[in-house]
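Q: Convert this sequence to structure tokens.
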Amino acid sequence: MSASAISGIRWAKSSYCGGDEGECVEFARAGAGLVPVRDSKSPHRAALGFSAPSWAAFTAALGEGSFRP
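A:
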């Protein structure tokens, strides 16, 4: 998603952020069933866009520990 397409939306940081070091994943609800995701170190750059169902499945899998070694 281009930076201009996501200007003015409210971003939230991952609950696993390590404080204000700037090494966080940020996400937002952009409407139309889209969830933009960006690197907090580069907020001025473009974001990845995921469908809301895909993002929900991903975060559910994280919560279940599906990505742990």
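DSSP finds one helix and four strands in the chain.
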